[in-house]
Amino acid sequence: MAGVLVLAGCAKDSGGSGSTNNASGNSGSCVTATAPSAAAAATTSSSAGAKVDASALRIGLAYDIGGRGDASFNDAAAAGVDKAKSDLGVKDVQESTASPTEDEAAKEQRLTQLATNGYNPIVAVGFAYAEAVGAVAPKFPNIKFAIIDDDSVVQPNVTPLVFAEEQGSYLVGIAAVYKSKNCHIGFVGGVNTPLIQKFEAGYIAGAKAASSKVQIEDQYLTPAGDNTGFQDPTKGNAKAAAEIAAGADVVYHAAGASGKGVFQAAKAGNALAIGVDSDQYNQQTVAEYKDVIMTSMLKRVDVAVYDYIQAVASNNLSALPKRFDLKVDGVGYATSGGKIDDIKPVLEGYKQQIISGQVTVPTTPTK
Questions:
Q1: Rounded CA gap, 314 and 306, in Å?
Q2: Is 96 helix (H, G, I), strand (E, B) or coil?
Q3: Residue 5 pLDDT exceeds 50
Q4: pLDDT at 331 over 80
Q5: In whole angstroms, what is the distance from residue 123 CA to residue 310 CA?
Q6: Measured between alpha carbons, how far is 300 from 295 in angstroms, rounded to an integer?
Q7: In the 8-state DSSP scheme, what is residue 294?
Q8: Omega of the bond prior to 121 within 30 degrees of 0, cis?
Q9: 340-355 mean pLDDT
Q10: Amino acid 10: pLDDT
């Protein structure tokens, strides 16, 4: 899914109507929209309630491919469990990781083993577990299951933990425009699925909202069904390097552990990169590339997992939000490293437009 998306206003003069820049992050060569004001607005806490004693819970954690240490999605889930250990007294956690080429039977076996061994609740990290959770959960009606990134499993003992990835991606798309010197940015997705298309859709929409002339490269590492795209840094490097060679000087990845390759390409190509899920500027496994990580789109899987464990411990699952979005701090953007400090008022202005409902971010890419 390679190509260059040249927006309709590309041929317009950069000094056209509405060409205003309210931050110092960009000289105005790319930004063509007036930034909204960052009016103060209260956000709802995503906390499931007061701290409780969760020491009696035995947590089963079934990771997607990459597992703990992927510096992204799985590590965010791990951080939520680690926080539950320190704050809620959780002592017993069993972790297991999917392999890139395993079949549904292997996923079902993993969940079944956790349930048979008495782990409760069990958190399935990723939409790839949907079929397995749907098959296993009915066999263990007294065990609670949660699945991240999927709401298709309708069972009384299954809780979906889903996010507004498109909203956070919209904000980093705006940041990319403000920081691009070439008015040319890129996106690298891991696997071409509806979920990852939400990241792409928000990123493109945010970039378009800030500029009528930005050029956007967008590529995926693997097609739907081939989940190796989330664990192939070499391929991530090659795709990002191609986008940078085409002129992109800011590249956003939603590619799991493959994102390390995107960071490598950004550093080699004198470009900037945008991380995903976790605050990747602070991830030790990609620390050598932190100087090119300008921000990360935060998908607060850690918050969702922690809140879920807390809700189970307090027997109050109804306290969880239906969707972890900007209103509940379920998604957002990182400021570590200070590279976007100067445009934070701009980003907050756009954020409030989304929270207020003035802007609805698309979930499918508009080419």
A1: 12
A2: strand
A3: no
A4: yes
A5: 13
A6: 15
A7: E
A8: yes
A9: 97
A10: 37
